[in-house]
Amino acid sequence: MILRVDALWTGDRFTGPTLIALDGERLVVTSGEDAASAAHAASTAHAASTAHAASTAHVASTAHAASADPGASAPPVADILSLGGTLFPSLTDHHTHLSLSDPTALFRGGITDAVDLGWVPSVAATWLVDVRDRPAIAIAGALLTAPGGYPVSAGWAPPGAAREIGGPREAGEAVRQQVMMGASRIKVALNSDAGETVDNATLSAIVEESHAVGLPVVAHVQGAGQTARAVHAGVDQLAHAPFTERLDDALVAEAAGAGMTWISTLDIHGWGAPTAGFRIAIDNLRRFAEHGGRVLYGTDLGNGDLTVGVNARELTAIRQAGLDGPDLVRTIAGASTPAHIGPRVAWIPSPPPADSAHLPAWLATARGLHAADLATIDSATIALAAEATTAAAAATAAAAAAKTDLATPAPTPIASAPVRQEHP
Ligand SMILES: [Zn+2]
After folding, report:
1. 77: which of 88, 130, 138, 299 lies 20 to 30 Å off by Cα?
2. What's the pTM value of the predicted model, to 2 decimals?
3. Is residue 38 scored above 60 in pLDDT?
4. Distance, CA 134 to ligand 1 centroid (Å)?
5. What is the distance in A from the centroid of ligand 1 to the CA of 118?
6. Which chain residues have CB less than 5 Å from ligand 1, an ion?
7. Signed CA dihedral, 173, 193, 303, 309: sign only
8. What are the structural domains of the chain?
């Protein structure tokens, strides 16, 4: 089976229209609008799959032979499904608390990969089992903190979600406990607004022990001077764009220069009614990005009234911080193209909007699927996608025509009325 989509996210831009070969649970991207190479990729993929090798050997060898003759190798039209829309190898929420949300709804809402940044390790470990209708999940395990420190007495954190560390010598054991429960990153809480924090020697020990086992360290920073402590200790990632103080440029530049990544979580500062913390976080994040720092989309899902799925308000806020176009898409869709895509993918039934101001709302129409499901999407959905494609083309034409008139609102690229049109 070969699928044709309008656009594919490659890590730095959208390409398309593109043909993609479906092989069981995986997709193999071919080079552009080339049915012969798609057929070749499909047969190669099948031949490589031991489960299907025997039954498809004849088909594969036929396709291989045919592909030597470009004129004769195009597959029958019936084998190409004109799916349309836009395909993403992944859409990731880098900061979630899945016990406080609904992972199934999250996947349905377009998130293929979710990182749980802090919960009771024995509970979080159970999410590492691959469940079809959920995102692929990575976990941090418990938050490492000072005795009595945040989030030991936080209302949201059940007993065990925080691991208290009395000094540097306890750091190794605490890190190893999270590793044994399946943690792929170590989280440390540096929240001086809510109690004691680990001292610098303990923080350094946590970073050393984590790096020694190959895991990055994520810090929750809150309160005066906590970002500086994290940067100077070699922490790899911030769980939130710093929101309690304006950081000076030298510190922001140092964080970016060190290769740190910052997870956005801007929408939690007011959930649509921006607070002082929202403005501080946007200002810090903007300067971090300007210095070349890498920003990652994350919502802190489970913290207040957040969309379960791709959150348009979070993306709008990241855009306010100056990341637009491919820079904005990269925060959620990743910066590289895997050789094989799947089993989870995200799909939007329309091509990318002509006006990047529409990217947040458009991305929020993503749905999480398994690659194999793409071949069985019902015809009504494909008809809607075709309609959206037509509408987007009209929007692009209208935008081009009205280019000098900025007051003219661009038509929405996403069809809302279920009016059927003939498939072109
Ligand atoms: Zn959180």
Report:
1. 88
2. 0.84
3. no
4. 19
5. 7
6. 300
7. negative
8. 1-89+341-424 (no CATH), 91-333 (3.20.20.140)
